[in-house]
Structures are given as C-alpha cells and as structure tokens.
Batch of 3 targets.
Target 1
Amino acid sequence: MLCENLKVVNLNITEDNYEYKALFRLCTESVCMDIDLAKITDESFLNEIKNTFQLEESPEEIKEIIMQKVMDASSIESHVSEGKSCCKENTDEKTQRGIDSLSTS
C-alpha cells in the first residue's frame, strides 16, 4: 500500500502556552491507528506505522507524507457561525407593523 492512500481523520490540535499538540487517526478502509504527532520523529514509531499499514515507502518518506496530510487537514477552514443568523426576519406581519408605526411617530 502507498502512504498517499492513508487518510488523516479526527485531527485535534491544541495549544497551551505556545505548546502545540496534535492527535489524529490514520486510517484505511480496514485499519485505523491513533497517532500523536510528537512521536512522528521516532523511527521505531514510523516503522510501526509502516508495518501496520504495510506501506512501501521508507520511514522518512512516510513522515513527510503524513506531515503534509496533517498540514492539509489543518488548513481546512472551520466556519464560525456565531451571531450570523441571530437577527433573521422571524417576526410576523402584525409585530412588524407595530414596530413600523412606532418608528413613524
């Protein structure tokens, strides 16, 4: 199997006093493995990933591909909708006429 076929899912990046932690799952259709990004520099851990997913690439190539996948996954924008639809027109016509009559007096 090629490392390009792996998926990074459930990416969770946290920050505490400028110390970043990234946890995620590396998955195929049949196998998943929980990954702590801090371990990604350990060659024995990279070999464990290689053996678990039966990857063809070298540990260094696996590390670079996974890092790129994490960067791509982290760049997906989250959509903040806080306060965006709080003032939609949900009033009925009678209430609106009352409001309009007050504004003309």
Target 2
Amino acid sequence: MKRSLVYIVALCAVLVTLVSIACAPHVERVSPATTAEFPALTGPYLGQSPPGRHPELFAPGIVSTGLAELNSVFTPDGKEFYYAVDIGMDWVIMVTRERNGTWSTPEVASFSREDSAVDLSISADGQRLFYCSNRSRSGSGEREHNLDIWYVDRTEDGEWSEPTNLAAINSDSSEFYPSVTADGTLYFLSGRDGGLGRNDIYRSQFANGEYAEPENLGPVVNTPGGEGDAFIAPDESYIIFNSSGHKRGPADGSLFISYRSDDATWSTPRNLSSAMQADRSDFCPMLSPDGKYFFFSSARPRFADSSGHLTWVTLTEAQSRPENGNTDIYWISADFIRDGSLAP
C-alpha cells in the first residue's frame, strides 16, 4: 500500500508538468511542477534496487509511468538522469538531478522547451549533450520536416547553452540517435542517400575539433531492412542496435550486438532477444556510466498476472500505470555483454 501511494504521488507530479506543457503555447513558459510530497529518492540510480539478469522496470511510477518514455541517459558522475516522454504531438526531454543526496522532481530540460526533442547522448566528460530535434535551423521558428542532431554545452553555472545545429553531420534527411565514444567519435542513424536501407548507422571521427565525413558502417551491420537506435561502447569495442533486417529472434525489431576488431571490421551481429528475454521489439540501448547496467526501452504490456487474472480493474487505472502498452524504460545487469552469455 505504501509503495502504491509513492507511485501515485510521483506519477501525479510528472503528469502535472506534462499536462501543463501540452496546454501551453510554448513550453518555456511553463514552470516545472514541484510538490513537497514527491518521494525522497536517495542513492545511486534514483535509489532503485539494482536488477540482476532479468529486465526490470526502471523507477516504476516515477520515470516509467502510464505515459510513453524513451531513452535513459545518466551524466558520467551519475548525478543527472535524462529521458524523453511522449506528450502527444511532441517529445520532451525530462531531467532529474541529485541535489544534496536527494533526487529532484523530474522537469523539462532547458533545451527542450520549444520544439520536439528526443534521442540524447552525453560526452565522456559530461560537458556536451547531443540530442535530436525538429527545431528551426534558421531560427525562424518554423519547425523542420526532418530531425537534426543538435548539441548543448555545459555553462559555468552548470546549466546548458543554447542549442547548436551539428551542421557537419546533418543532411537533408533525418539524423537521429547520436551516440558518442570516449574520444568523441559520433555514431548516428540517417536515411541519407547512398545507404543500404531505410536508415543506416554511420560513424564520424572527431579530431582537431572537427567531425570527419560520415562513413557508413557497411553491409555487415547495415541491411536493406533498416537499422535503428545504435549505442556505441565508450571504447568503440562493440555496438548494440535495433534491426529489422538481420535474422530475427522472437521479436520483430530485436536488439543486436556486433564487436569491432582491431582492424576496424565488425563481427556478424548476434541477436539479443534471449538475453533481453524479449518477445517484442526493444530499442534505445544505453549503458550506465559505470558499465554495470544496460538500459533499454520497450513496450511490454502486462495486463494479467501469472494466473491469468487482470492486474487492473478500470481503463483509467490501466492508463495510469506502466506496462500498459506504451513504451517504458527497463534495465538489466550488463554481465551478458562482459561474459558472452548471448543468444547464438
């Protein structure tokens, strides 16, 4: 009962913020919701009990709610957590911060208050945050038809700068799901001309303050069926991505892993459905800064318990809880990456 009450209070706090966003002409005019009743979350990872080898909902009722959530990115020091929430017409990026040992009520990130924003990645030093948005390139206020990769830099007061378009990477097609290595090399998805499928994974090295011409990862990784949501390991030793073109497991659009050799070639991707215990599509892969936990997003509806009894009574109840058919954020021990316990 106590646990249920905490979930309801936390969900209400987030819903107040998001309903205000949906009703406001511009998100920047909305003050973040605050409540003295928001649960006191202390400790690493929002005070959540770490998972084992079975995927667990991350922060149910607080981050994973009845809404649709994507992405799951901690800053390198583990003191800030960012994630995206669907508010109907747009996506907004939310942030909660650990302040004086306690996590704050989630609020809309400063750079996500005017235009749709999703798919974020943070540099190894925590000083630059990449994300995707349809905001105007020209500053005219008219949104673009495609998504571009943008970035913000950490300012002296610990906040974020105004967004800058990553013009060296972006094309006339959509670019999305940036993922950055420890040395600044950027991996991303794009539907630009010359690819093998609907969307391909590209790589751009960062040297002398500039990004090199993006290179397609090639046919071992990319397929005519299309790839998506690629997370690159900080040391570039492996990549985990969603694919509809590789050999499918129980899920359509499973996660796959491919290892990079010393000669920069990629191994045949291996399906992760078994490791993720998935019977449906998983996406938005991400590793925790300490490398211990693997985060991902998935829609895994659970309307009944193991005995077949409904776990909710009314439609309203179903809409207000996680695992109701919308996407939620999950986490699992990253041991399966380190010890090789992967699907064939």
Target 3
Amino acid sequence: MLGSYNQNKAPTNAGHGKQYRILIADDDPSTRILLTHFLKKMGYLIVEAVDGEECTSVLEKEKIDILLLDISMPKKDGFDVMSYLKQKDLTIPVVMITASHDIPQTVKCIKMGAYEYLTKPLDVDRLQTILRNAITESELHDKVSQLKKELKSKEIFRKIIGGSSPIKHVTEQALSVMETDLNVLIIGESGTGKELFAQAIHEGSKRKKGPFISVNCAAISHELAESLLFGHIKGSFTGANNDHEGFFEQADKGTLFLDEIGDMNADIQAKVLRAIQEKKIRRVGEKNERSVDFRVISATHWNFSEAFSNNSFREDLYYRLEEYPLYLPPLRERKEDTPLLAKHFLEEFCSANNLNQLSFTPEAIEEMMEYQWPGNVRELKNAIQRTAIRCKNCGEITSILPQKTGHFNRIDKTPTCKDTPEKVETVDPQGKILSLEEIERHAIEEAYKACEGNPTKTAQVLGIGRATLYRKLKKFGLN
C-alpha cells in the first residue's frame, strides 16, 4: 500500500522545534496501521479516528496540525468533516486519502477547502512532500491566527487601559471564554470595570450583532422585579396599560448583563434560575411560555459564603451563573497601570471639555502609585476630572488625592489639617535673621506637627510633592 520509505528524508519536521500531531481518519484498519507506522518513523505524533464522528470529536478536544482524511467513512463521511471544519472556522490542512475512482468527490472536497489529495496505494515520496508543504502552511495559518487574535484583542479591549500582568491575565481569560456560550460571573470590587469587561465579552462573541441589555439588580424593587425581568401583558395588573417586553426578552439573540447580582431579591431568584436553565419565560398575566435565546454575564462584589449561610442567595443560581468565573483585580494590585489610566483620563477629559492639555509632575505620579484607591478606577477617574477643573490654568498637576477625614471625602477640598501651623518666624529670639534653610526646616516641622505626622497632608499644605517632602524630612532629621 505504501511505497518504499527513504530514511534520508525522515523526519520531515526536524528542526521545526516541535512535534506535529497528525490525525488519521480512515475506517480501513490496514491503512491506519501502515500510515501510523510510517509517520511515527518520520517523527510525527499520531492520533487515529475510525469514522467521521470520532474524527470531529478529536478535533473538538485536541490540537491537530494536519488531518489525513478518507472520504468514504461510516457515521460521517469526508464531506461532513469538511463541513464541520468550515462551520468551526478551523484552518487545519486536510489531505484527502481516496481510491482512484473517487477523484470527482475528491475535487469536491478540494473546493470545500482541502489542501491536497492522495490516491491509494499511497506514494511515499509524494506524501512526504505534501506533509512538508502542509506544515509550512499550518505554521503560516498559526501566525495569521495569532495576529488576528491580537488585533481582535486590541479592538475589543480598547476601553480597558493597562499593561500589567494581572490585567493581561484577565483579558486572556476573557478572550478564551467570549466565543463560547458559557455564563460568566465577573467578580471584583466596585469601580474595577466589571461592565466594561462584560461589554467586551459580548462584542467578541458570536452574539455581538444581538443586543447587550444591562440590568442593575440592586435598583430593581421587589414589587416590579417580575414585570421588569419577564414582562407583562396588558391588563395583568393595575397600571399595565400595554404589553411590556421584559429584560430577558429584550436580550434575545444577545447578552443579558446582570450587574450587582448579589443584591437580587431572594423571592425572584427561583424564577431567574428557571429562566436561565430552560431558556423560557412567562410574562406576568400570560399562560404560555416564550422561548428566548440569551447568554448571561453577571457581576458582583459580594463574597457569597455568608449569603449562602443565611439563605439570602440561592447556591444553585450562583453555580448556574458561575460557569466561568472572572476575577478583576483592584487597582492597588496593578499599580503600574495607574499612570497609564491617569494620563488617559486626563487627556480624555481635557479634550472633551476644551481645556488646555495638562500633565502630571513626577511627584504626582508617585503619589498616585502609593495611594490605595479604595474606589478603584472609578475613584481615580473622578479625582482626575475634579483636579483638571481646579488646575485648568496650571499646566502641571502636582497632586490629585482626595482629603482624608476619617474616611475618604468624595468632595475634593483644599487640604486642611487638624490645626493650622503657626506663623513661621524669619528671626530667632535673639533677633538674628534666619537662613532660608532654617526657615524651610521650621516651616516643614510646624506643618508636620500640625498634620499629626501625616505625610500626604503635610505635602499638600506645603504645596510640594510627597517625594520632595520625604527628602526634606530626611535632610533635616525630622523622620
């Protein structure tokens, strides 16, 4: 069945730095045995399939570099496999293996995207050449796919700023799940950008042409929850003057984003669970159910352990929502992204409001990096916008931090301390005029005492950056 094997040509994939996996899909055992023996000697890793159904099953689960495909197979033939590859957008080089009388069918497979064909008995030299060329094409496809993936990632995550390892990890996870129909639960503190990630996953999914319906579960009252989520028909209750389409129906063929899912009323959770499981809803006042096709992405800042123990949230609903969890790190866990975010927000705000472009001093950047940002990206954005208005004629921004008064005051104020520093004298008790260095030392000492040793407040009162303050404290021995 196989011609003579030339040892000088084996293995064809030597020097490529990897072992290539070849799937042999043929219902003839002797063909599989001979090909396997021959290809293993050439250095390939071999996977076998006895029919078209097993072939597609392998392709679903494993990374295959080249497919050797017989046309006439039980369950699914070569045409079915080629259709499957096209449907799944798989660009694996396919080499058809066929008897000479099947050439017209082989030509049909070539038109469907097959790379090449071989007739039985197989010509070994030609097989080696085809595999070598197929490997080159496979590598090219991989490079193109990687470039497409990178371009897609840049486009989809264009609103998500950052280059830190934590944020890269999250985007990679989001990329891996977006093309599936798994329900995604995004977990993260307030202000970390959960809705931005939900929108990105929708935009990268096969549902991108459908609607993205965002629902704030914390804002839905118990009385209106069923009507808002599932809709109602005219006359079903007082005030129902028209038929109403609920959020689940509005999300048909698209994505339903349930924000703050942990705040959903306990009484409605059972109906939400059933709607997600069955993909069917019933409007209030209606007898018949309606089928809806949607994907659920939900978001929460909750730790659900306590909610399970006091029965305020159903565990079965949680596990239905958490088919794929996605954890968004707080800003303090990706501090290196803070300057990028700050620069982006500042430029965006100045452009949108016709302000002269501003910049940050190194001290301001250092200050932002050191601050913990309990409100995360949202707090950073708000602080920068307030500061941009206050400093619109300054050119440079030296500080953007909010005033701390026991808790973080969300209204930016002129920095104040518990006590106002005393007036700085320029002469000593003996009437001797003090040097500039002595005056500076005295001013820093008084401000530091008045602000109870808080370096951030002290720097703000003195109008200098924290880094500068630290240098001065060290210089004057005031640590």
